[in-house]
Amino acid sequence: MTKNLLRVGTVYLPVQRVDKAADWYVDKLGAYVTYKDDNKAIVNMANLSFFLVKAKEKETANFIDERGEECFSLTFEVNGKDELEILYNELASQGVQVGPFENRGHGGKNFIFYDIDGNMFDVWSELSSVFKEKFDIG
């Protein structure tokens, strides 16, 4: 059965103000909007569609792990450490809340950042080999 699952097509994210959130994703992350109404917007980036859904106050996609630490539920990939540092500096210079670079005991480096609604995201410097092959990225 798992052979039928080909990719993740859509990620749903809770937001407080749909218009403001959609603008943030466009301005800060280079997304583009394909649909917007009062309750939701669809923004596209990183080969995915993100549904920004109006949610209750303080609702985020984050979760608390067994140690009581807040965790992200989504990791973006960039092609190497240089690209990671460029993205980090771009986000930081735009006033995006970013965490420090981390070495988590596996190849590459990571950092986290937050959107304007407190949704936490991870960025990893190691682009998957399957993605590189599919899109002919060196």
Automatic annotation (TrEMBL):
**Which GO MF terms are attached to this record?**
dioxygenase activity
Q: Which InterPro entries match?
A: Glyas_Bleomycin-R_OHBP_Dase (IPR029068), Glyas_Fos-R_dOase_dom (IPR004360), VOC_core (IPR037523)
CDD domains the UniProt entry points to? VOC
Q: Which keywords label this protein?
A: Dioxygenase, Oxidoreductase
One of its Pfam families is Glyoxalase
Q: Which domain of life is it from?
A: Bacteria
Q: Which SUPFAM superfamilies match?
A: Glyoxalase/Bleomycin resistance protein/Dihydroxybiphenyl dioxygenase
Q: Ranges for the VOC domain? A: 7-126
Q: Does the keyword Transcription apply?
A: no
**What protein is this chain from?**
Catechol 2,3-dioxygenase
- Source taxonomy: Bacteria, Bacillati, Bacillota, Bacilli, Bacillales
